[in-house]
Structures are given as C-alpha cells and as structure tokens.
Amino acid sequence: MQKDQQSIWFSKPNLENMNAMCKNTACEALGIEITEVGPDYIRGTMPADTRTFQPFGLVHGGANVLLAETLGSIGANLLVDNSQFYCVGQEVNANHLRGVRSGKVTGTAKLWHAGKSSQVWNIELHDDSGKLSCISRLTMAVVPVPGSK
Description:
Elements: H1 15-21, H2 26-30, E1 33-37, E2 41-47, H3 61-78, E3 85-96, E4 104-114, E5 118-126, E6 132-144
Antiparallel strand pairs: 1-2, 2-4, 3-6, 4-5, 5-6
Pfam family, one: 4HBT
Keywords: Hydrolase
Protein name: Hotdog fold thioesterase
C-alpha cells in the first residue's frame, strides 16, 4: 500500500489473508488471485484459459462477473468494522466490451459510494495489453452482525 495517500480501509489489508480466504471456493477453481491493495483500490487477476473460457475460446462473461464481485466484496468488507458489520452482494451488472482469449484478466475495484447501509463499487477489467474488456458495478448491502448492537 502506498504511504503518500490516505487509506479508505477500516482494517489493514493483508494479501496473504485475502488469498487464503479464496481457498476451496469458486475463486480458487478459476485461478483468481488478489495481487495488490492500494489506498483506495483492490486489484486481482484471473487466467484466460480453459477454466474461464466459454465454448468459443473467450473468457466467459460469468467468469468476469465472478472476478468483479470478488474484488468488490473484499473491498466492501475491508471498509467496515467486521465486529459490527459484514457486506453481501445485492446487485451486480457487467458490460462485456472486448473478448479475451489468452493471458490474464486484471480487475481493479474502486469505491463509488459508501453509505450507512450500502456501498457501490466500480470494477474495470483489462486484458494483458491494458485494453478495457469489461466494466462492472456492484452494490453491496452493509449488514449488522447479529448481536453486535
């Protein structure tokens, strides 16, 4: 994390812990890896290979959405006090702009809105040449932990 910019995170991000949470999940099955956390973003990658392809040899739109929602969900939960709240997805959409046939898809999630009961995240996915392949918006509900209040 950069030191020259103030962080938005409630808790200090830990890449090792984030990737460990992905073990034995759809994220692990698709090869998703969290690679970087900045002061106001989360970045991760997903391979463009047989695990993520649709029948025409392109990254499946659903795989793009899984990457986008993973990044936004991790960010949302880092933004709140997890002893008091947790965040769950309410709505996700995606516009698939360019097919990806090889390499990796890199996603970057940034917060658009943080309210008392919801958050909205913007996630951009790029191919290895830096071309935008998908844009996604994720709405997260901020839910009180039972018995925390």
